[in-house]
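Co-fold these.
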Amino acid sequence: MATLTRGELARASGVGIEALRYYEGRGLVPKPARTAANYRRYPQDTVQRVHFIKGAQALGFSLEEVAELLRLRARPTKNCAPVLRRAEAKLESVEEKLQALMAVRAALLALVDECSGAGPMKNCTILEAMDRASRGATDRGTERWEGLR
Amino acid sequence: MATLTRGELARASGVGIEALRYYEGRGLVPKPARTAANYRRYPQDTVQRVHFIKGAQALGFSLEEVAELLRLRARPTKNCAPVLRRAEAKLESVEEKLQALMAVRAALLALVDECSGAGPMKNCTILEAMDRASRGATDRGTERWEGLR
DNA sequence: CTTGACCCTGTAGTTAGATACAGGGTCTAG
DNA sequence: CTAGACCCTGTATCTAACTACAGGGTCAAG
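Predicted complex below.
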């Protein structure tokens, strides 16, 4: 058979069967042909397309952004500079998240180092640091940390 | 006045007024006394408690985990080892997220370096890498990246 | 011809951490 | 006494990327 059912495509591309319907709704996978009984029949190359989606996601692109990349990819003779631009922008946002996470790591490391774990709760330097943290080394940490998503 | 209204507490502690009701529902802030007109009256030290919540959040603790820390803190004569354990565990999970993010950064960096942006879309090495990414250097990247939250 | 695996649609639920709104009551300055 | 600022509750909405479910139809083996 040259075509795949939804379940076959799910198995072949390693995603959940429901995710495929979701991708179709989001326009990430083109609406496939249907059989007389209204079953989806996917062409083989849809496997590759789903791989692309997972690959771009693994690089930190949201499905919205993946859709944009797919639109760019759809015009193969155009220059690929827009793709490069998006990759650079994503790299930059990843760098920012790294900075934020490293600040958190540094703060946690300092606290863990400083606390013996032997004293009573009321003298705990870790708890004290949390009390102070609204204005501290990891300031606006919440904002930055939230930004990690 | 020795007590604060909800709006005053929100301003004093730098959170949204609705967040306070949310925290109360989650048990992070104790239910305050009420006036005859059913208005909340917070004792001054609630400001400190909200600071603690924001501080712990900034270090990467979820509200669920913050609640646990608050329960630990509530018994001031007990040993603070459990707090240290939780900080160490959080540090470890932050390290893992860092590893994942650094792998993503490395992959993006390699792609951005390799692509001139001058060629046509159909030869784009970035797009090709995404096609291959279900089994690549950033493998199971989705899982790891999702894990960043 | 029945059983079980698969497929269809539409809708609702999940996670986390809030934020927003509707429809009321209260309080205070002028 | 009234305008506007504040407070109350309960419920809905948001983001992202799915996942689950109900209630039905289809198909292939035995």
